[in-house]
Amino acid sequence: MIRHTKYFFVLFIASLCAAQEQSSLTAMDVVGRVQALYASLTDASADFTQTVKFKYTKTEQKFAGTARMKKGNRYRVESQQQTLVTDGKIVWVYSPVNKQVVVDAYKENAQTFSPEKFIFGLPKNYTAAFVGEKKSGVHVLKLAPRSGTNAFIKSLKVWVSETDWTVQRVEIIDGNEMQTIYTVQNFHRNPGLSDALFSFVAPPGVETVDLRSMTSPTK
After folding, report:
1. Could you tell me the domains of the chain?
2. pLDDT tens digits, residue range 161-181?
3. More confidently predicted of 219 and 107
4. Which of 114, 115, 136, 139 suits 71 as a labelling partner, its CA being 20 to 30 A distant?
């Protein structure tokens, strides 16, 4: 998936545990609550602001967008720069500026993460720890890949509200030393999203580049 959108899966972590358990929770308890929450979701949506900081060029990009997901590796992430859609089998990446949509088969590898693959692999692939003292009703959780794990994400921090256990902020450092920061607003759990959202039809006049035909002699 395109680098600026591959991490959108972290936008959908929310509603983790009961208030009376807050003081005794460990970091791995929180991970368990995240997994339980995700297992209970049918679909979800959120608005986000994304800031990407490039270490070597000392530059950054910032934009806002919307993210929607549905079980079965179905996602739709939209911003002014691009729209990424997948139904779990096909991926469409549409660039309005270039008037082009790139189509490819959906596939997961070390540099491509889905919410389902990432969240349910957390205990095996990552260690978790709280960062500093809780302030202003927010817990900060740091995740780091375990030794020997082939993970493109080097480290990840998540800010979780103690009031409603939704994620307010996420910071990611990847294998290219690029920092990606998300702030999340308007999280909606099980809004009843249509399956049609997770398919894409190119607008008139847009070029389609189908990479599947380049990799499969039968297509």
Report:
1. 3-215 (2.50.20.10)
2. 777 767 778 898 888 888 999
3. 107
4. 139
